[in-house]
């Protein structure tokens, strides 16, 4: 295999290797956290102490639909403006359509936010 063919192969595989490494790190972090909690529980049981009930509960994850929606709409508008200004005179629709994807996703997130707000579901502001 030539060195000229090896470089693109390495460059293309690096993102996948990075994802695998990050997943491995996250998995080890979770395992270590569980191990420390088990050790704490065992030491407390040996000494006859009681632990707070909420010590082992996972924190509640709050949704950020309003913030995400605004960011996606802004990104979509930015892409649309950038593409419109750099487009060929007869090719506006094709270029502008690239910004419609994040724009529509942002509208969806805003809809979710307002529907949840109406139903009383908590959303992080």
What does the model show?
This protein is mainly α and 125 residues long. Helices cover 75% and strands 0% of the residues. It is built from 3 helices and no strands. It has helices at residues 3-47, 65-85, 92-119. Helix 2 packs antiparallel against helix 3 (92-119). The longest helix is centred in the N-terminal third of the chain and has 45 residues, at 3-47. The mean pLDDT is 83. The chain crosses the membrane at residues 6-25, 66-84, 96-116. This is DUF6249 domain-containing protein.
Question: Short description, anyone?
Answer:
Helices cover about 75% and strands about 0% of the residues. By secondary structure, the chain is an all-alpha fold.
End-to-end C-alpha gap? 54 Å
Q: Structural class, please? A: mainly alpha
Outline type: flat
How many separate domains make up the residues? Answer: 2
List the helices and strands and how they pair.
Blueprint: H1 3-47, H2 65-85, H3 92-119
Helix pairs in contact: 2-3
Give keywords.
125 residues, mainly alpha, 0% strand
